[in-house]
Automatic annotation (TrEMBL), chains A, B:
Protein's name in the database: Tryptophan aminotransferase-related protein 2 isoform X1
Sequence ranges assigned to domain Alliinase C-terminal in this UniProt record: 81-321
UniProt entry tagged with the keyword RNA-binding: no
Organism from which the protein derives: Gossypium australe
Pfam families: Alliinase_C (PF04864)
Keywords assigned by UniProt, alphabetized: Aminotransferase, Membrane, Pyridoxal phosphate, Transferase, Transmembrane, Transmembrane helix
Cofactor: pyridoxal 5'-phosphate
GO biological process: amino acid metabolic process
PANTHER family xrefs: BIFUNCTIONAL ASPARTATE AMINOTRANSFERASE AND GLUTAMATE/ASPARTATE-PREPHENATE AMINOTRANSFERASE-RELATED, TRYPTOPHAN AMINOTRANSFERASE-RELATED PROTEIN 2
TM segment ranges: 12-30
UniProt xrefs under Gene3D superfamilies: EGF-like, alliinase, Type I PLP-dependent aspartate aminotransferase-like (Major domain)
Keyword Chloroplast set for record: no
């Protein structure tokens, strides 16, 4: 079993095996340790950052063969640890501390109608939720909301499909190509080709896309799974861009400037951690596109849960208030390396560790599955199976078990 | 303007123009008046029935040229009345009376995970909601739940698409035909052909469907828009059935026996009136079909709002308790004309009035739109534009304005 050591020894983890993410987060840890106690910026970022930094510290130290002080919880050895999904349960403890301030109370007779505001372009968008979206973006400074239409969706997943529907040229005989630079979010190909639509089709890695004519390019920034900031890579003249900005929040990456694109997607799952709400939103410049996206959501699910929108509004409001009270919000003339929101330089601290297995192991996902650790392999993201994505959004308890188990994989 | 009178005079309304629905509801009114006060069955049905009966009484009397006692609210004459959608706001006043019993309270840290129960086939189904679905069906007796998988959806609209995805034969070169007997629910063709899928295609009226090979037939019973009880009509050997039972509740139709089909769809929108929750459920016999439906919903929206499921569970629980307290629940040996749940004979009382314009008016929807009354025309349901569907689920105030306005359409 010597080869296992060669995969998971600290040296490999930090020097060979890890993509940039983990080491960058370690740097954040150092930054965090060395700062004067005055940091209390985006409270949420702080919380997240601490948790991630702690996780990474444990990860890098505990997988060393010399770390013998770890105790294994009884009966925990055989439990499967699922770090495949980016399930943001690590945020639970934060919201627990907020207590009643974010509790929502809904009487039985409320929100019965299909309609939220029949006079609005997006007629199923709750006005209070729309208001809180605009106010939060304005405070955080991560997206331009002026002259944008807001379309609410059942998560940003539905909005992505609504965007494909809205942007596909109806008259074309051939489906429009949908591309994204690898490694790309593993669900994009599945979603795009799920119903074998004649409107659009998945066409793979944007970097190798050479066809003429119109295409749709997905730009995920910071990227899932590898955490890099991104721009569009195809150089075609007829490209239509969708910007998936799920992770463009200060707990994941420096906010260098307000994003100002034609079609931007955000989601509550990654901004506040409330994945179970199934709420996302799109900021859309073109009225006709916003109208078609609304039409898709009308046909697909006749709107979006009002209960969830109302609760999301309350959570976003609380987030914004805390952000404002921090007193650290800064205006806009800082160089790009600086997070304009936190007013300090820091490196990306992504939600996922993007790890490469060196040596003989060709399929890292299968290898880890043999150890009852579920991750998502590189092939789902359009790259080699030597890579895996490990979610760092899980509850601390699960993460601790994962780290303990890694530490026992040795000859 | 004499022709208008010929369309809307009472005689036409009741003898020529109306489909069976309205007259049947009038019979219910008589039945209701003549009963001995002891009736307090399905409280919900009672409420609904009263409201419908009242609406129909007003409709039939007020459009008579002799009804001059109506007063028109000032400034209300020009307001557009939208009776196009079946928006169940008439149920609001019922739930208002229930007060705090159906209020739901959700702390900010709850329901953050994507998962409800990872060990379950439908991993995003909240266990409490599943429990309440089974208990309500068992009390009302409108569907068999034994040996069924429950799949929750963002309304039954999403479940319909999940069913198409699950039932379409993957290997086929040609899309499978999807049919339903006209008049059919106007959204079926739109949903089916929205993304121009290569898996399935809308093939129109089931009664004229003659192709060989596999097909999917939608059976909506009671039917939207005309309220009739239905069975499948295509006689092919390779038919796969989807039963949309949104209106198979005692407030709409007698419950003759528990529905016992392979794939049955229900929705909170029509059972409790909470359309804004976007919650529906499917009862599915085949495990593989249930699994594929779950997969579709995972790809489409990564599950279903937990906030809505939790609230729906509370509302369904309240509904069931009230039903049980009524003490009128009866067991199963009654002839089909009897509602097994209410233990008395009654005729269907649908959620929509299905009206036909006689005489020269070829496009009844356009004609009524000219009077600022929005309805949904027959062509959307696969039949002649002489028909329109009028929602009777609106708030009483809007319905009153509608009735008043009809009464003024005269020469």
């Amino acid at each position: 079993m010597a080869y296992i050591l060669s995969v998971f020894a600290v040296r490999n983890l930090l020097v060979l095996s890890l993509a940039l993410n983990v080491s960058l987060i370690l740097r954040v840890l150092l930054l965090h340790d060395s700062q004067d106690g005055s940091f209390n910026g985006f409270f949420f970022a702080e919380q997240k950052e601490e948790a991630l930094a702690t996780k990474i510290t444990r990860l890098s130290s505990s997988v060393s063969p010399s770390s013998s002080s770890l105790t294994m919880a009884q009966g925990d050895e055989d439990r499967v640890i699922n770090l495949d999904h980016g399930d943001p349960t690590m945020y639970e403890s934060y919201w627990q501390k907020k207590g009643d301030e974010t509790t929502v109370v809904i009487p039985g007779w409320q929100f019965m109608s299909y309609f939220s505001d029949a006079t609005r372009l997006c007629w199923f968008l709750e006005p209070e939720f729309a208001k809180q979206i605009v106010r939060l973006h304005n405070v955080v400074g991560n997206a331009v909301t002026e002259n944008r239409h807001i379309v609410v969706g059942t998560g940003s997943t539905q909005l992505f499909q609504a965007a494909l529907y809205a942007l596909s040229p109806c008259a074309e005989a051939e489906p429009i190509s949908v591309v994204s630079a690898a490694p790309y979010y593993s669900s994009y190909p599945l979603i795009t080709d799920c119903l074998k639509s004649r409107l659009y089709k998945w066409a793979g890695d944007a970097r190798s896309f050479r066809e003429n004519g119109p295409y749709i390019e997905l730009v995920t920034s910071p990227n899932n799974p590898d955490g890099f900031a991104r721009r569009s890579v195809v150089n075609g003249s007829e490209g239509i861009l969708i910007h998936d900005l799920a992770y463009y929040w200060p707990q994941y990456t420096p906010i260098s400037s307000p994003a100002n694109y034609d079609l931007m997607l955000f989601t509550v799952s990654k901004s506040t951690g409330h994945a179970g709400m199934r709420i996302g939103w799109a900021l859309v410049k073109d009225e006709d596109v916003a109208r078609k996206m609304t039409k898709y959501i009308e046909i697909n699910t006749i709107g979006v849960s009002k209960d969830s929108q109302v609760r999301a509004a309350k959570i976003l409001k609380q987030l914004r208030e805390a952000v404002q009270q921090s007193g650290l919000f800064s205006v806009s003339d800082f160089p790009p390396q600086l997070c304009m929101f936190l007013n300090r330089v820091f490196e990306p601290q992504p939600a996922f560790a993007w790890i490469k297995c060196e040596g003989d192991i060709e399929d890292c996902e299968s290898f880890l599955r043999g150890k009852k650790i579920l991750t998502r392999g590189g092939k789902h993201f359009g790259v080699s199976p030597k890579y895996v994505r490990i979610s760092m959004l899980d509850r601390d308890k699960n993460y601790e078990t994962f780290v303990r188990r890694l530490s026992t994989i040795r000859s």
